Amino acid sequence: MIYQSFRPLPCLLTMLILASQAGCVAGQRFVPQLRAESPLTASGAIGLDDPARDASLRLVIAGLDADEAGRPSRAIASYQRAVRVDPTNPFAFLALSRHHLDGDSPVEAAAFLDQARSLFEAQQRLGPSVDVWGLGLRAGIDRARGRDDRARTLFDRARSLSPEIWGDERLSASELR
Q1: pLDDT tens, residue by residue, 139-148
Q2: What is the mean predicted confidence (pLDDT) over 89-106?
Q3: Cβ of 9: how many Cβ atoms within 10 Å?
Q4: In 3-state terms, what secondary structure has residue 70?
């Protein structure tokens, strides 16, 4: 009796609808859409960890504001205090990397970027919302070192994650803020 209630046409229509919603109709392969994540900024990271991290993030933000206002010595002092308050704050090292890249010190920028990546990785925070910073900064470091082909490739990847930030191939202090 169960077989008598089976109606192939409604089942077939249901399967076609489900397949079309998955992108499988007419020989198309299902390709998952990558969800664009907003970049995790220093101010967006406040409240994600403990009070020491939040205090350190506030010092990073103060440094970014000083950098934006054209006061690099005040900015660097704020970033250094941020590291003393929380030496595991990857945003302090990202800000230092950005600061040194802006100041034409690609060697220092690379060292601070490597430290930031190590900390993000140790804290299991790698992903598009964080990788966007590393890709773009590494591209800027490579460009400063004359590695233009590699820089172009990395800038393209950074732009694909966040065109509004990396469209000009430069990370401003306010964008990391």
Answers
A1: 999 999 999 9
A2: 97
A3: 7
A4: coil
pLDDT digits (tens, 9 = 90+) for 130-168: 999 999 999 999 999 999 999 999 999 999 999 999 999
Contact 63, 177 (CB under 8 A): no
- Hey, what are 124's tokens? 């299991």
pLDDT at 31: 31
| Cβ pair 88, 119 in contact under 8 A | yes
d(CA 140, CA 145): 9
Alpha carbon distance, N-terminus to C-terminus of the chain: 67
For residue 105, give the DSSP letter: -
Predicted pLDDT of residue 87: 98
Q: What is 109-165 written as a DSSP string?
A: HHHHHHHHHHHHHHTT--SHHHHHHHHHHHHHHHHHTT-HHHHHHHHHHHHHH-HHH
Q: Give the span between the Cα atoms of 24 and 168, in whole angstroms.
A: 38
